[in-house]
Amino acid sequence: MILAQAPNAYSEDLMAIYQQALEADPESKAAAISIEIVKEQTGEALGEMLPQINGSANWSANNTRSVITKGHTTNNYDGKRYYASINQSLFDFAKFWNWRRANTVEEQYNAENIAAQHALIHKVVEKYFGVLEAEDQLYFYQTEKNAMAKRLEQTQKQFAKQLVKITDVYEVEARLDQLKASEIEAETIVVTAKETLKELTNTPFSDLYKLKDNVDYKPLDGQLEQWIEVAKSENPSLAAQIKAIEAARDSIIVQTAKFLPVVDLQLNWSDNTNAGYQNANSQLSFYETQVAAINIQVPIFDGGVSIHRMLESKHKLELAKNENEAKIRALIKETSDSFLSSNASVRRIEASRKAVASAAKSREANEHGFKLGVKTVTDILNAQQEEFKAKRELSQSKYAYIKNRARFMRSVGMITEQNIQEVNNWLQPKSLVLPVEPIENKEDKTEIKPSV
User: For the chain, what is the largest distance between any 2 Cα atoms, rounded to a whole number of angstroms?
Assistant: First the structure.
């Protein structure tokens, strides 16, 4: 019973959800693993330019049989062979540029890893406040439904006293049925939003911190054109694409270098003792060989393989350039849309606050006019509907500001854990949120307190 009366003991704020998502997000983990893979590939490319040392040893038991005129002779002896070689590339542009390409690819994956981290922060903010927004919408529909149920009860009593027409009763009933349908739809949206957040964290949660009512929603500073330039230079996804273009250029040089001669330095040493029948068991069966050589390999014809690989690399470079152009255009659009939408949300919040106050006064005026006989039930219902609509729009505009702001920070490459903490300071436990006075309804006691 104590646990049931204290649900906020298990409430989770934005930072807690982010930490859960950070531990569970497969995309971030995959990006980190990709960096480790490309680091090993860079090491492989470097290793191809370093000395290659090989050694071998052989021990054998030898038996020889010599046939002569009067019989044969048999010799049994042990054989030994040792061999060592060192090869060092002196002139091989393909290996060098392949190492350069691997370094560029590593920088590309580092940028992609940062982009994955930014994407995770943005998803946490978007899905967390998606749940709060859905819960607020459900609460307002429930509150409006309860108010309409009470209105229906009053209208039925007034009809019994012949103060209103039966059509007024029917109209209130119709609007109540519409609100019940809207409530069902809002409940579905809440469940979907929670499942989406659970998918991100892979952890069930009981309750979330709610948005404070006194948050100062400030417009974004600066000019849009300046922010677009910042996005072009700081966005990690775009930086990764630029590195992909550089890597594609290096690949072309790698394939072109394969048409050039390759020069290697080779050092060999061998030691043979009675190894095989060619070295018979005698005093002259031991010999040592030392070789120093410079090998020059000139490619002449490989069936056109090198040409096709070079053309393939050129096509990949053009593909990377087109992808970069598409990303630039998408980034400009995303930055512009999120910047303008964030600032528009600030103005919308102020307008919605005024609309809520005006709608409340209008409803009160219509109720007073109904008592004086100059307003109808329809007028009251319309005013009440406009009031709840204004409250829902105010809630939506607040969440739209937070989501668009996170989109903007991601597009300009400036979204960090500090942003998570900043937004987290705008939250408080659900028990501390001042609720709108609910209207009891015998049919449905379910209630979700608002976060705004």
Answer: 147
Same domain (yes/no): 194, 325: yes
Tell me, yes or no, whether 80 and 228 share the same domain: no
**The two three-digit tokens of residue 452, written as one number:** 């705004």
For 193, counting Cβ atoms within 10 Å of its Cβ (0-12 exposed, 13-18 middle, 19+ buried), the class is: buried
Residues 264/299, Cβ–Cβ less than 8 Å: no
The answer to whether 224 and 339 have CB atoms below 8 angstroms apart is: yes
**Does the pLDDT at position 421 exceed 50?**
yes
Residue 207 — left, alpha, or beta (φ > 0 → left; ψ -120 to 50 → alpha)? beta
C-alpha to C-alpha distances, 310 to 103, 176, 258, 269, 362, nearest whole angstrom: 20, 71, 9, 38, 75
For residue 69, the model assigns a pLDDT of 62
5 vs 187, which has greater pLDDT? 187
Distances (CA, A) of 259 to 255, 309, 310: 8, 12, 10
Q: Containing H/E element for 75?
A: strand 71-91
* Helical spans, DSSP H, in 25-165: 26-47, 93-160
Residues facing residue 11 across a β-bridge: 207
Which residue shows structure tokens 């010999």? 287
Query: Would residue 181 count as lying in a domain?
Result: yes
CB proximity list for 269: less than 8 A, separation 6 or greater: 83, 84, 85, 288, 289, 290, 291
Q: Which residues contact 246 (CB under 8 A, 6 or more apart)?
A: 104
Q: Which residues pair with 208 in a beta bridge?
A: 12
CA angle, 375 then 378 then 382, to 5°: 105
Q: With respect to residue 179, please indicate whether it lies within any of the assigned structural domains.
A: yes
The pLDDT, as a whole number, for residue 278 is 53
Tell whether the model's pLDDT for residue 4 goes beyond 50: no
As a whole number of angstroms, the distance between CA 355 and CA 361 comes to 10
Q: Which amino acid is at 123?
A: K
Q: Is 355 helix (H, G, I), strand (E, B) or coil?
A: helix
> 376-407: per-residue pLDDT in tens?
888 889 999 999 999 999 999 999 999 999 99
Q: Which two tokens stand for residue 222?
A: 């600066």
What per-residue confidence (pLDDT) applies to 272?
Answer: 79
Query: What SS3 state is found at 76?
Result: strand
Report the C-alpha gap between 118 and 25 in whole angstroms.
Answer: 12
As a whole number of angstroms, the distance between CA 364 and CA 176 comes to 20
Amino acid at 196: T
Is residue 78 domain-resident? yes
pTM: 0.82
Indicate which CATH number applies to the domain containing 358.
Answer: 1.20.1600.10
Asked whether residue 438 is domain-assigned, the answer is no
Question: DSSP assignment, residue 69?
Answer: T
